[in-house]
């Protein structure tokens, strides 16, 4: 596979703070990679540096075979970027907003309208962007990032303001985009989101990538015990679930049994701790 992103020893500082501290990362073409981390871990700074929005203090970032910095105009039609904070042209309707983005990339208005439908905003097409709810604005921001059919998509906490239905619909949309051959990189605080969507996840903390592997590999490496909850709420914790379930089957006690293995959230907490972050 060809690398869509190659990051080597990337560092970004703000005064005494090393927001990105010697990060090396490869994302293969067509991969779906999730970047996880507590607040202040450096996820957004890392993405913005790879996108060419920030100049790194040291190290390099190559995107689709081209250097990300200085800001490279040849990359702009090939990447889609949805920032953590949405920013729109004032006093435009949702339709005018996405038509404007489409026109910048030479995309027909009809294609832009299709994207409004794909993110469920047809009924809000004539509403001004300042009158959209937080979730609606987030969906419009995602549509604007995808309207030109980019090869590589960066999404910074795309589902943060979405309700459960919109969140699941966006998962389907991102899966379709990835399965069509597009590379997707997203940051998220939702562990289930990363576990379901991502081929690999990178866990960041204090500006560094602690691990980068498939969700299944990270969960196996944690070696967390399995919790078996019986119908009467009795809980059995075991590292030999097959044998325990066989014993329960022989005793006729499998009805209503719930089995919980380790999760990506367990991995995350094991790596980054449980203390509150600002």
Detailed description of the structure:
There is one protein chain. With 278 residues, this protein is α/β, with parallel strands linked by helices. It has 2 domains: 3-215, 3-Layer(aba) Sandwich (Rossmann fold), CATH 3.40.50.300; 225-261, no CATH class. It contains 9 helices and 13 strands. The chain has helices spanning 43-50, 94-104, 109-118, 134-146, 164-179, 191-197, 215-222, 241-250, 264-272; strands at 3-14, 17-28, 32-36, 58-63, 66-67, 79-82, 152-156, 183-187, 200-205, 208-213, 226-229, 235-238, 258-260. The protein is globular. The mean pLDDT is 91. InterPro entries: AAA+_ATPase, ABC_transporter-like_ATP-bd, ABC_transporter-like_CS, ABC_transporter_ATP-binding, P-loop_NTPase.
Key traits:
single chain; 278 residues; alpha/beta; Rossmann fold; six-stranded mixed sheet; four-stranded antiparallel sheet; 13 strands; antibiotic resistance; ABC_transporter_ATP-binding
> Can you list the strand order of the major beta sheet?
6-7-8-3-9-10
Run of helices and strands: EEEHEEEHHHEHEHEEHEEHEH
Q: Indicate the low-confidence ranges by residue numbers.
A: none
Number of domains: 2
Q: How would you name the CATH homologous superfamily of the largest domain?
A: P-loop containing nucleotide triphosphate hydrolases
Q: Main beta sheet, described?
A: 6 strands, mixed
Number of helices: 9
What percent of residues adopt helix (DSSP H or I)?
A: 25-40%
CATH-scheme architecture of the largest domain: 3-Layer(aba) Sandwich
Mean pLDDT, nearest integer? 91
InterPro entries: AAA+_ATPase, ABC_transporter-like_ATP-bd, ABC_transporter-like_CS, ABC_transporter_ATP-binding, P-loop_NTPase
Keywords: Antibiotic resistance, ATP-binding, Nucleotide-binding, Transport
Protein name: ABC transporter ATP-binding protein
Subcellular location: Cell membrane
């Amino acid at each position: 596979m060809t690398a869509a992103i190659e990051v080597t020893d990337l560092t970004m500082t703000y005064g005494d703070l090393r927001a990105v501290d010697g990060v090396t990362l490869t994302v293969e073409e067509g991969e779906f990679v999730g970047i996880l981390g507590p607040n202040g871990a450096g996820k957004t700074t890392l993405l913005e540096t790879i996108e060419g929005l920030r100049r790194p203090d040291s190290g390099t970032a190559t995107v689709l075979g081209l250097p990300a910095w200085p800001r490279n105009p040849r990359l702009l039609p090939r990447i889609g970027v949805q920032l953590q904070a949405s920013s729109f042209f004032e006093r435009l309707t949702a339709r005018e907003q996405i038509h404007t983005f489409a026109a910048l990339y030479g995309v027909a208005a009809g294609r832009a309208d299709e994207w409004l439908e794909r993110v469920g905003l047809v009924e809000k097409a004539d509403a001004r962007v300042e009158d959209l709810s937080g979730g609606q604005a987030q969906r419009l921001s995602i549509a604007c990032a995808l309207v030109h059919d980019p090869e590589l998509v960066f999404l910074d906490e795309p589902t943060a303001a979405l309700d459960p239905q919109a969140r699941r619909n966006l998962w389907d949309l991102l899966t379709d985009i990835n399965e069509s051959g597009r590379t997707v990189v997203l940051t998220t605080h939702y562990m289930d989101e990363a576990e379901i969507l991502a081929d690999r996840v990178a866990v960041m903390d204090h500006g560094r990538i602690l691990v980068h592997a498939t969700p299944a590999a990270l969960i196996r490496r944690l070696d967390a015990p399995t919790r078996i909850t019986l119908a009467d709420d009795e809980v059995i914790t075991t590292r030999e679930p097959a044998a325990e379930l066989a014993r329960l089957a022989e005793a006729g006690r499998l009805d209503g049994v719930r089995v919980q293995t380790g999760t990506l959230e367990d991995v995350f907490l094991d790596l980054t701790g449980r203390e509150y972050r600002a």
